[in-house]
Amino acid sequence: MVARVDVPGRWPLVGHTVRLLRNPVEFLSSLPASGDVVRIFLGPLPVFLVITPELAWQVLSTDAAKFDKGVVFDKMRPLFGDGLATSNGAFNQRQRRMVLPAFSRARIEGYAEHTMRTYAENLADQWKPGEIVQVDKRMQDVVLSIAARTLFSAELGPRVLDEIRRSIPIMLKYVLVRAFSPPFVEKLPIPANRRFDEAAARLREVIPEVVVTAREQGVDHGDLLSTFLAARDEETGEPMSDEQIRDEVVTILTTGAETTAVALSWFFHEIGRRPDVRRRFHEEIDSVVGDRPVEFADLPKLEYTHRIINEIVRRTPPIILMRRAREDLVLGGVRIKKGTEVAVSQHTLHRNPRYFPQPDRFDPDRWAPDRAAELPKGAFIPFGAGARFCPGHFFAQTEIAMVAATIARRWQLDPVPGLRVYAQVKATMQPNQLPMTAVLRRNDP
Ligand code: HEM
After folding, report:
1. Which DSSP category does 413 fall into?
2. Which CATH number do you get for residue 306?
3. Is residue 391 a part of any domain in this protein?
4. Who contacts 203 (Cβ-Cβ below 8 Å, separation ≥6)?
5. For ligand 1, which residues put their CB under 6 angstroms from it?
């Protein structure tokens, strides 16, 4: 057996949490120097973090059945209930089978043609030449609106839409700090806890009303909710209960919206800093799409755009993927006892210079066709891997390409000189600010 390596710089009570949340890229990419499996502390909790692609693949894929989601997700259960992200074991597998049809290619084509493009065009319609646009905020709005509309069709939920727009950003602001804090912190009567709890309670209250109404109507609106209502367990023939549907809706709104909005923000930020990349991106949009609206069928042809998207999700993935061992096992020669928390860091994996030379460089051309397939399993996992692979990955890639292309057809977004934009950790790696100047490329009907 190999001894685990303890990461230095642990503070009393908070462990490495402050370093992790203050600068995750610096902290997580400094770890490989320490060993293949290292021990860090999130608050008082010891966590064994695996460093190599092989071990990441073992945890997420080959040995997936030996792990639950762990303590962070236990803490999120009051918010997500037993939705896809928080549930474990056979229940999770059953839910996944029932939810996945909502993310089929045909369904996503419908969401792209009806919802994603419409909201992106509405946004592009609002800007004036020379206007300073708060790109991070506008991406949050557009992505949350798309998420809400693909879940519930328009007639069903205007009041719910307002509540979603109000509650989700509040919850996302506090969820990670709460998850990585010692248990007593969430019981403290501080505003952060009160706001989080109130927002979670409001959301969990309004969504069931919509579910009940939709069930009574019994019509397929072509939205996610209709797919959930129609889903049947393949063994028992049972439908999903209203509580399960509520939990899946809250899960999808919270996991799907922020991640995608953040990717879109970094997309415009990075291409704004690299005129050569932006020129190629614009040339691709102009030659594939021209002067008509972007169509779903255009998206696979936007090869360079997808290279940019890959490079964005390589550099700014979610902070860390957490698991808990369901049994004793060995990882990279280190003995892991049942109940131990284990983590995979995409930041560490995605900045490994062996697979990504000059890892800090923003270089879409490292994603030449087939490059991802040449990487070893576990080296590039922006959407996770194995049993808990992101069910929204195609939805997200479609949405990022559709929104970016629709905006770029008409607008070029220029950085505001002299502003410092950097990643701050909320539930994801958000830009601290992102004002950009809208420069007209094409006047459009
Ligand atoms: C750029 C956008 C996105 C990124 C980078 C991303 C990334 C991820 C990752 C890494 C996981 C695995 C977590 C783990 O293994 O612990 C995950 C899970 C999940 N994602 Fe995404 N995601 C994105 C967009 C979406 C969208 C648009 C949706 C839904 C519409 C979604 C729904 C989910 C759900 C429900 C899970 C939980 C799956 C499970 O635990 O079994 N995601 N996502």
Report:
1. E
2. 1.10.630.10
3. yes
4. 163, 164, 167, 168, 171, 250, 253
5. 84-85, 251-252, 255-256, 259-260, 263, 313, 317-318, 321, 382-384, 388, 390-392, 395-396
Strand order across the beta sheet in which 435-440 lies: 132-134, 435-440, 411-415
Residue with tokens 């190599």: 52
pLDDT tens figures, 337-366: 999 999 999 999 999 999 999 999 999 999
Pocket test residue of 104, 322, 347, 383 for ligand 1, highest count of atoms within 8 A of CB: 383
Range of the domain at 144: 5-440
Please tell me the total count of domains within the chain: 1
397 lies in some domain: yes
Task: Return the ligand 1 atom nearest residue 396 CA.
Answer: 27
The residue whose CA is least distant from atom 21 of ligand 1 is 390
Residue 66 domain flag: yes
Distances (CA, A) of 350 to 54, 126, 371: 13, 37, 14
Answer whether residue 379 is part of any domain. yes
pLDDT in tens, 53-98: 999 999 999 999 999 998 888 878 877 888 999 999 999 999 999 8
Q: Provide the 8-state DSSP code for 232.
A: B
